């Protein structure tokens, strides 16, 4: 078994190394024909003289090529602004499309081979490393496995390196996609398989990698928590929703000439739902588009309070959500890193609800612009001061770069805990109007601390368990891991009548009684 795991590790490292090195495995040559086919005719007159000297030049990587394209665009724009020729200002991002069309060499000519060597071999290697754990770990269940002594799982050098790679990838993906042209090209065979008329993009790469991680690491989750039926069904659920609803169905809709739409995503997590371009796209797409728009509104207006009342926020955060799905699968090795301190809880409450307020204000501004046609409210431009800052700070930096890149540094639910506005909305409903709670049996608690250690949301579960108090924290996503790792069955996830939900025991020596708050 150890030999199989070692071989799997070698295969995985080979695929990872090939993925990283493929960044440098092509050359780029801009020709006049390529330029004419990509650049709009109205921009060719001003941009071609600036770039003409680069035609035919070969660049060893995408970095100097993209820099040259961006320099030319900036030069043209600066001249147009100086002359106040605003119609000649170029807003199109030509760097990525020109880089894609100009790429040549080993990677563009062998896309399918690279896809197989990186993703298929990588998946096989990962599974070879994961599957033998069924026998090597002995009986199912969570044991004292020295999780805090591992360099990956406790902010050691492996964790810091992993975090740095994730952060770097997200920065390139969100802000400099032209530089990762090779990575985008490699997934083109899969894009063509789903939709022959489409070409892969930065977002298709992102969606595929997201799904790939959830599926492969979902297998690890199933093995690790195989003693719990709840965890098995929950893990299968997030794997299904990510593969079907977040990845395949939207791509199939595009193939059918319908709007790209994720039926499980909703406002305010889907912060551009009420953008003018999105509303116009849906409402101009006939009955299907109008249904999508109505579905999106119904989901957060009716679906959230209804489902949270009966099942708690876990119905979404732990069973459906893609962010939660990635956190529970790929992020599971880092769940013990969540800060359980009172100070962290205080920061969490102010920050996550602050983001929710920001999302509401931003949406009001966007809707005001859409309805009235005016771009300003009280003299402030709604895009410049509301929509753009939210998209950059929350939609990109917080949810992406920090939310996932900080898994090995702050735990796997950084975004869900501190930044997700939908989690805040779900949590408010769960806190005050829900049948869901985690009940405890303080008399059985042996204070092993497993529950608090494995709580990804930073809840000191043991504190509640020792006192026999129900856990009704708004941040609790109902993942049930605290119950799954408890050796005494102290914790139980329940959907019961609201009566007695806030009952708290008062301890007097060896006796106790309850009062209702």
TrEMBL record:
Keyword Protein transport belongs to the record: no
Keyword presence, Electron transport: yes
Transmembrane segments: 112-136, 157-180, 203-223, 235-256, 290-311, 350-370, 390-409
Residues of the 4Fe-4S ferredoxin-type domain: 436-464, 467-496
GO cellular component, one term: plasma membrane
Pfam families with a match to the protein in the record: Fer4_5, Fer4_9
Keywords: 4Fe-4S, Electron transport, Iron, Iron-sulfur, Membrane, Metal-binding, Transmembrane, Transmembrane helix, Transport
Xref: Gene3D superfamilies: 3.30.70.20
SUPFAM superfamilies: 4Fe-4S ferredoxins
Molecular function, one GO term: metal ion binding
InterPro entries xref list: 4Fe4S_Fe-S-bd, 4Fe4S_Fe_S_CS, Electron_Trans/Redox
Top-rank taxon, per record: Bacteria
Protein's name according to its UniProt entry: 4Fe-4S binding domain-containing protein
Taxonomic lineage from the root: Bacteria, Pseudomonadati, Bacteroidota, Cytophagia, Cytophagales
């Amino acid at each position: 078994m150890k030999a199989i795991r070692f071989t799997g590790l070698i295969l995985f490292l080979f695929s990872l190394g090939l993925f990283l090195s493929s960044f440098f495995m092509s050359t780029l040559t801009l020709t006049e024909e390529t330029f004419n086919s990509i650049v709009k005719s109205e921009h060719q007159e001003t941009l071609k003289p600036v770039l003409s000297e680069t035609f035919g030049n070969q660049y060893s990587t995408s970095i100097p090529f993209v820099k040259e394209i961006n320099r030319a665009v900036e030069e043209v724009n600066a001249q147009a602004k100086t002359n106040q020729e605003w119609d000649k200002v170029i807003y199109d991002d030509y760097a990525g499309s020109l880089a894609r069309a100009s790429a040549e060499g080993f990677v563009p000519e062998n896309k399918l081979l690279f896809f197989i060597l990186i993703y298929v071999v990588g998946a096989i290697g990962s599974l070879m490393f994961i599957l033998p754990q069924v026998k090597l770990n002995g009986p199912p269940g969570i044991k004292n496995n020295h999780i805090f002594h591992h360099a990956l799982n406790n902010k050691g050098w492996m964790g810091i390196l992993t975090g740095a790679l994730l952060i770097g990838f997200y920065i390139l993906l969100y802000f400099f996609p032209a530089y990762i042209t090779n990575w985008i090209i490699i997934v083109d065979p899969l894009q063509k398989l789903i939709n022959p008329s489409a070409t892969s993009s930065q977002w298709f790469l992102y969606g595929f990698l997201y799904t790939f991680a959830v599926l492969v690491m979902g297998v690890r989750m199933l093995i690790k928590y195989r003693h719990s039926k709840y965890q098995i069904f929950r893990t299968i659920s997030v794997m299904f929703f990510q593969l079907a609803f977040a990845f395949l169905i939207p791509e199939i809709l595009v193939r059918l000439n319908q709007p790209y739409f994720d039926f499980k995503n909703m406002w305010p997590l889907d912060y551009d739902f009420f953008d003018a371009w999105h509303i116009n796209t849906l409402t101009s797409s006939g009955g299907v588009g109008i249904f999508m728009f109505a579905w999106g509104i119904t989901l957060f207006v009716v679906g959230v309070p209804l489902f949270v009342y009966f099942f708690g926020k876990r119905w979404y955060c732990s069973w459906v959500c893609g962010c939660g799905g990635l956190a529970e699968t790929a992020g599971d090795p880092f769940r013990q890193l969540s800060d359980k301190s009172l100070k962290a809880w205080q920061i969490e409450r102010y920050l996550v609800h602050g983001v929710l307020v920001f999302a509401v204000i931003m949406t009001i501004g966007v809707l005001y612009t859409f309805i009235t046609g005016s771009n300003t409210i009280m003299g402030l431009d709604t895009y410049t001061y509301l929509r753009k800052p939210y998209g950059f700070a929350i939609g990109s930096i917080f949810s992406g770069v920090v939310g996932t890149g900080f898994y090995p540094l702050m735990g796997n639910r950084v975004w869900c805990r501190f930044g997700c506005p939908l989690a805040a909305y779900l949590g408010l409903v769960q806190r005050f109007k829900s049948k869901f709670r985690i009940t405890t049996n303080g008399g059985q608690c042996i204070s092993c601390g497993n529950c608090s250690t494995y709580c990804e949301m930073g809840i000191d579960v043991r504190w509640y368990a020792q006192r026999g108090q129900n856990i009704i924290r708004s941040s609790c996503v109902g993942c049930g891991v605290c119950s799954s790792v408890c050796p005494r069955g102290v914790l139980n996830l329940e959907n019961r009548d609201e009566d007695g939900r806030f009952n708290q025991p008062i301890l007097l020596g060896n006796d106790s009684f309850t009062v209702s708050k």
